[in-house]
Amino acid sequence: FFFQAEDGIRDAQESRGLGDVYKRQEQNLDYNYLRPPKSVLQIKHDERYIKHGQGKKSIRKIFHGVEYDDFEKQMLEDLKQAIVRENVPMPTNIRWTDADILRFYYASHFVQPKSIELLRLFYDFITSETNFKLTEEALQFIKRGVIYQYGRDKQFRPNIYIHPYKINLKTDNIDAFINALLVILDTAQRYQFFPGYVENWNIIIETNDAGFFSFPVTILQRVIGATQNSYPSTLHRLYLLNPSFSLKTAWSIVKKMLDPETADKIQFLRKSDFDVMYDSIPKDQLEQRWGGNVPNLETFWPIPYTLNEPSWNPEEEKKKLHQQQQQSLQAVSYTHLR
């Protein structure tokens, strides 16, 4: 079955964005409008959400601005030494932090050889500009509503939608679909995350009542493969909506084989179960097709800003404050000279 590791579709990295180094998307779009509002600073995560469990059974969702325990510190030090010892290539222009490295260790469940393998795969991924240049063919997948980003949950985590039933496995270029997925994830990571507050996203998959044998498992496998090596430890929830009886029955069997943490992240919801989703995602951030208040989308690109509060860019605010301070100093100097 397609549900594999605990972080099957994994969390993205911090909002610094890997695109700070490599030219991406080339659409001449300014995505700063997607940044969360200043009220993001009011988010208070409970201790269990930030991190719970001990040792190799730990689960962590927030990696920035928090204190690591002794086990994590030791694992970090061991992995850093292994990176040097194994001569693991690292992108030289990315400002790696302990949070970045620790994410990969969590993604491997603290298995050092697996962490090294993931870091090597990540290097290949991030140094390939073609992964993030949105091709016209990939853009069509977004415009068709096969993959898109819309809305956020109650803690400003972005919601990413996939409609695999819209993909024709015989005629569609799946590599172009993965390209579209990476651009959507990259944009969410860079502009909608906020370190220490928003470090996770929701993936919402509309199954369209597909049966167990007609569900495009290969698409999910490609999604998992494209994300788990590049955006470790970022999944908050994976919702599969409107599953058929056979698909939901298959899940009830597979669920028993997974650890509780993995099973808790994955929700199979029929329409009668959507209240579970409403507990996390407000209806004004959901389309009417899923019981929300937003008319069903017809335009999916550029990504719409859906919050009632204006977006906030702390870097721009710092620049403006610095300019105001400089202007005030100049005014004081001029008055003093007079």
Structural class: alpha/beta
- The sequence of SSEs as H and E is HEEHHHHEEHEHEHHEHH
What is the number of E strands? Answer: 7
Low-confidence stretches: 1-26
Query: Tell me, what's the shape?
Result: globular
Q: Mean pLDDT, as a whole number? A: 85
Write down the Rg. 21 Å
- The total count of helices amounts to 11
Largest sheet: 5 strands, mixed
Beta-sheet strand percentage? 5-15%
Strands of the widest sheet, in order across it, are 3-4-5-6-7
Helix content: 25-40%
Distance between the termini: 79 Å
Written overview of the protein:
Helix 6 (174-191) links the parallel strand 4 and strand 5 (201-206). Helix 2 (70-85) packs across helix 3. The protein is built from 11 helices and 7 strands. The strands form 2 sheets. The protein has a 5-stranded mixed sheet with strand order 3-4-5-6-7. With 338 residues, the chain is an alpha/beta fold. The protein is globular and about 50 Å long.
